[in-house]
Amino acid sequence: MKKLKDTTVIFIIVALIASIVRFIYFDEISSSPLRNYHLLKGCDMRKLLHNGLVFGNSGIFSLYSLLIYVFQKPIVIIFVQLSLGVITSLLITYIALKSYGNKIIALIAGFIFAVYAPSLIYEGFLLKESIFLFTATLSLASLFFFDKKHNPLFYFLEGIVLLLPFTIRFSGILWCAIAILYFFLYLYYQDFKFKLTLQNCKSFISRKTTILFLLGVLSTIIFVGSFNYSRGGNYNPLITNYSYVLDIGAVKNAKSVNSEPTVLKSATYAKKDTFLEIYALKLFRVYNVFHAPNNINYNYIYSLAFSKIILLSPLLLAPTVLLGILLIMINYFRKRSKKIFFDQKNSFILILFLISFTIPLCVFLPLGRYKIILLPASIPIATYAILTVFQFLKKKKYLYLILTISAYFLLFYFLKPNTTPERDMDYRLHAIAITNIKQGDKNAIPYALKAYQLKASLRNLTYLSNLLMSNGYFKEANDCLLSQYDKYSNKFDYIMMLSSSCLGCGKVKNAISILNNLQIPIDKTRKFNYFYQFGECYRMIKDKKTALNYYKKAEEYISTKNQKNLLYTGFKKL
Question: To pair with 471 at 20 to 30 A between CA atoms, which of 286, 348, 397, 518?
Answer without folding.
Answer: 518
